[in-house]
Amino acid sequence: MQSLTNISLKTIVKKQVKWKAKLYISALSSLVIVQIIFGLLTSSAGSGSSGYGGENLTVHFSNYSLDTFLIVTAIWAFIVALLFTTKAYRIDDLSVISSRTSSAIANIFVMIIYSFIAVIIMISTYYLQVFGILLVEKKSFIIEDLFISPSILLLCFSSVCLFGAIGLLLGTSFKGPVVIKILVSTLLLLGLILFFMSPESINVRSLIMLSNLMISVLYLLMALLCFSLTIWIADKAEVTRK
Amino acid sequence: MKGGFSMHVHLDGTTPIYIQIAEWLQHEIIADRLQTDAKVYSQYQLAELFNINPATAGKGLTILLEEQLLYKKRGLGMFVATDAKERILLKRRNEILTKMAQEIVLEAKRLLVSDEELLVLIRKTQEGLE
Amino acid sequence: MNIIQCEELSKSFGRNALQRVTCTIDAEKIIGIIGRNGAGKSTLLNIFAGYLKPTTGSCKVFNENPFNNIHTAANMIFIDDQLSFSDYLSLEDILKMGADFYPNWQNELAYRMLEYAGIDLTAKHQQLSKGQLATFNLVYGLVSRCALTILDEPMNGMDEVIRTDFYRAILKEYLAFPRTFLITSHHLQEMESILEEIILIDEGSIIAHAPLDEFKEQLISLSGPSDALAELLSETEVYAQKIMAGMTSAIIDASNLFISEEILRAKGITISSLTASEVCKYLTSKKGSDIDAIFD
Questions:
Q1: pTM passes above 0.90
Q2: Could you say which of A123, A149, C235, C266 is the most buried, measured as most Cβ atoms within 10 Å of its Cβ?
Q3: Cβ separation of A12 and C70 shorter than 8 Å?
Q4: Distance CA C148, CA C27 (A)
Q5: Domain C2-212, classified CATH 3.40.50.300, yes or no
């Protein structure tokens, strides 16, 4: 008999990541569009405002606010992650060599890569807004305003990653009618935003004296937990094609 | 892609395909298209020729092998046995014609045709074919 | 050498889809899997593919549990009308992707087959007509040259000419690169000549698994004067019979029949064999019932 093919999980995951990252690129372009829209909306409120009238959100370190962009990106990551786990995408995985495990791992890597790129897009649109405002209001720019510290960047990345991870986990756990999924997910999403990005939680956090860096690490660990759970759940799942 | 399946195998369900293959091969031998010691088609060639599964073709070849109408040369394939043609003709005469004779006689009886009338009919048919 | 072994395999989703199925499937054979809708064919194939888990019992493919198994997936491909690809891929891209994953992929052959079928490679998978889709999916499955190739109603939607061509394509590919083909179809008569074995599934169980010729020889049709046949019929299992004007024709189990043809002919009874489809039909229909009864 012909000898059987022996391919390692690692090779398959790499291939899946390569193809998924290429294919889902439209998701990134949707982010760009959404960011620009939000950027335009909030910039009309003028500089120096957080856009909500309330106290500091997570990232407000200068006259210009990164908050909006971060929230938008986090929500985007959550929704994209949910979409990755819908039936249409899952069924596509069956058309190539894959297992539930390899697909789950591949989705996770793609999510991480996209989170990284999303943060870059986020920062870029932020700068666009800043320069836009500067041009319009004919102010001269202050270097400090433009400098975003690495710890802030890490915080952004880890927040986006976390929201993406939660999205993947939710999408993988709920295999039911899409409507229910959307309902439950929206509720959870709102809850998450309130929890992570509301003024109260920020105050609590500053009470515990956690630096941005530590929060980042915490978020990343939580994301890792979500990813592990996602793989664990995916392993057990049967596939229904119809 | 088209072309190459010039032979038609009857799938009317009355004769198993492997038997049809065996009979076709015997026919080829009688007709001298497969001569003594000539290499016979392999099961794969037959499969492609008749658009059938090679295992089925193989079964047909095996029948002839068991009747020693073919012999096998290890690694080289199957070949026509020396007296294959004569033995096939003998066999056919015995089996087929006997069976046909039985049928014709039975049918004639059923149709109330007398023995003499039947013989006349056979003679006429022979003359017609000459 | 067998590649699939099932032992008391059962699967239920609320209802019992498969009941204690035990079978072995050999390597490098073309096997037809026949059964009515809802008989359990697709469920069984989905378990072989590693998509579903048995409820009880076991299934081994290439000596391993196929569920969520990357080694099984690397040597298996499942083609049906649910095969889907990303909206952003043209057919040409899909072929590139296939080539990237499947080590035995024959891209050249795929191009030639699709050109023959008149399918434009710049089109998207979603834009194809039903027949073109079936053709493309089948080509995808054939050129992947996986040791276990499962084709679930692959010809659905194809017109007759293309179907004939592609049954031949399956045979030729099998001859060029032997592998196990498991093909389900509702058109057994079209597919029969290329099959080596047949597995008949009914109501969640395998009721027959044999080489095609043996399978066909299970049942025979007898017809003749009713009185001559009566005695015979009492000695063996009768699957169907029709009585009209003193003549009976019946489908019976041939395994218990030890009378020679000559004797039967002398009694005025004719024997004829059945096509594989007919044998399937009789083996799976409820004994003694037929559509006419509804109208009587």
A1: no
A2: A123
A3: yes
A4: 8
A5: yes
